[in-house]
Design goal:
Helix content is about 35%, strand content about 25%. Strands 6, 7, 8, 9, 10 and 11 form a 6-stranded mixed beta sheet that branches. Strands 3-2-1-4-5 form a 5-stranded mixed beta sheet, sandwiched between helices. Strand 4, helix 2 and strand 5 form a beta-alpha-beta unit. Helix 1 runs parallel beside helix 2 and helix 3 packs across helix 6. It starts with a strand and ends in a 6-residue tail after the last helix.
Amino acid sequence: MTTRVLAIETSTPASSVALAEGREIVSSASRVDRRGHSSFLVPAIDFCFDQVGWRPDDLDAVIVDVGPGLYTGIRVGIATAQGLAAAVGVPLLTAVSLDAIALGAATGRRHIWALVDVRRGELAVASYHPVPGGVVKDAPAEVVTPEELRAALESDPKDVLLVGDTGAVEPDVLRGLHRVKKGAPRYPHAETLIVATGAALEADEIPHPDEIRPLYLREPDTQINWAALESDPWAGQ
């Protein structure tokens, strides 16, 4: 039986949803609006269902990007995916924004560095090497400053393709790095989430619901602000 899946992507300013039957994308929708995840998501899902004549209970699985990325966007995506998967009784799979960006990069040989702007002057980054049919991550993702990113790129002996939200990096940071080329995509897309999780879905490698949580890589802004108030009750006055 062909598997029908819905993918939800809201970890960056670009929100997107996609439906696939097997490995074929049958409908998708996207919009770039850093504050518009919640207003976009449900109408976009309805639009995609209407396009192909599906109902939610036609789904066999739901996929959601858990980050890293924008705190509110990630929460909106996970909450929507969890609610829909629970309502129709299908498994929920997770994908990582950096993995999806790297997988969508057009390169034949260059070492891939994917980045996501996580605000406050910091970037979530991870490096990958291309292999036939995909990419392999070199090490866990981490949060760095633009200066730390430059140092990492300088120490990479290979030709580099830098993908993701490179617009968040000032031109001076990359100046003089002649082996570094900027490329696409800028943001992850729901269509790529389907590719990224295809093997796990086929192998029935479904995470336990308790394992599905946001991948922030650092304390979200709201928690950090609460910690400051706890240490200084008058800080917010």
